[in-house]
Amino acid sequence: MKKNYFYTASLVLLVVTGIVLFQKYQNVSEPIPPLRERQGPISTTSEWLNTKAAIQGLQRKLREKPGDLKSKLLLALAYMQEARITGEHPYYYPAALQLVEEILDREPDDQVLVYEATVAKATIQLSLHQFEAALKTGKAALQINNQGAAVYGVLCDANVELGHYEEAIVMADKMASLRPDLKSYSRVSYLREIHGDMPGAIEAMQLAIDAGFPGLEQTAWVTVTLGSLYEKTGDLKNAEAQYNKALAQSSNYAFALGGLGRLAVKQKDYQTAEQIFTQAAGIIPEFSFQEELVRLYQQQNKIIKAKATMEELLEGLEEDQAAGHVVDLELANIHLQLGKDPDKALVYAMKEYKRRPDNIDVCKALAEIYYQKQDYKTAATYLKKATRTSSQDAGLVCLDGLVKFHLGDQINGTHLIQKSLALNPYQNTTLSTEGRNLVSKAISKILFH
C-alpha cells in the first residue's frame, strides 16, 4: 500500500512539474535571428528604410510575445526577400528556415498558418537547392490545401529541378488556372523555354511583367529574365531595352546591370563590361558577376586578376555550401569552363547527378565534361537525356553537334553547329569557337575539293 502511494505521489509530482515548466517555457523560442545592415547602394534607398522599420517592428513583437507565430512567419518571409535583394543567402535562408521550423514544431491549430509556413519551408529548400526535400515538403502542403496557387508553384519548381518536366507542366497549368499572375506566367515561360518554344516563352514572360507592379523586386526580376530570353536569341536591342527598363524602376538592380555587362562583352567593349560587372558585384555578392569577371579577365589575359577573382568566387560558393546551399552544379561548371579542369568538375557534377539524374542542365554539364575529356561516346549518352525536351539552348545544340561530328556523323554535326550559331550568333565560348572552326573547315573542304 505504501509502495503504491509512493508511485502515485511521484507521478503527481512529475505531472505538476511538467505543467509548471510548460507554462514557464511555452512562449520561449530560439533567439530571433538579427537583421543585418545592408551595404553599398542598396542601403540608402527608401525601400530599405521601410523594410528595416517593418522587420524591426516584427522583432519587437516577438520579443514581447515569442509565441506570436503569425509575426514569426512574416519575419521569415521578410528574411527570404532580404536574401533575394541583398544576395546574403548563407545568412538569410537558414535564418528564415529556423523561424519556419519553429512554427511547424509548435503544431498550431490554425491550418492556414500551417499551410503558409509549409509552403515557405518548401520555397526556402528550393532556394537552397534541396530539391528532393522541397518536393516532399510541397506535397505535405498540398495535403493541407489543394486550392492554393502557391503550393503548385513550389511543386512546379521542384519537379523542374528534378527533371520531372511533364509533372512540372501539370503543376504550372494548375497554378495559372488558380492565379494567373507574375509568378505563374514566369513558370509557364520557363517551361516553354526548356521545351524549345522561345517565342512562347517571351510571350509568357511579357504577361508576367504586365501582371507585376513597377518598382517591386519581383517585377524587376521578370523584366531582366525577359531581357535574357532576347539575349539568348541574339536580339541584343530588345535585351538592352529590358535591362534598362528594370534599371529605370530600380537604379541599383544588380541583375539588370549584369545583363548590360554581358551585352558589352558581346559587343567587345571589355572596359565597359568590367566596370559594370564590378559595379554589380559591389551591390550584392552574387557569384555570377564574379564568374563573368573571371571569364572577362581570362579573355584579356589578365592572369593575376583572373586568379584572385576565381579564388574569391570559389571561397564564396564554399561558404554557401557550408550554409546548406547545394552548389555542386555551379562548382562543376566553374571548374570546367573557367578552371579548365574536367576531372575536378566531374567530381562535383557526379554529386549533383546522383541527386537529380533527369535534370537536363546536369546532364548537359556531364556531357560537356566528357566532351572535354574526349570521351565522345559517354558524352553522347548524357546528351540523349539533356536534349530530350527539344531545348533550343544554343550552347546545348552546339555541344550536340560537336559530339556527333567527332563520332563520325559530320553532316548532322555540322548542321547542328550551324543551327546553334544561327540561334545565337553572339556566342563566345570554347564550344562555339571550336564549332565555328569546324564548320569553316568543312565548308572549305567542300569548296576546294
From TrEMBL:
This is Tetratricopeptide repeat protein. TPR repeats lie at residues 220-253, 254-287. PROSITE patterns: TPR. Keywords: Plasmid, Repeat, TPR repeat. Signal peptide: none annotated. SMART domains: TPR. It comes from the Bacteria. Pfam families: TPR_16, TPR_7.
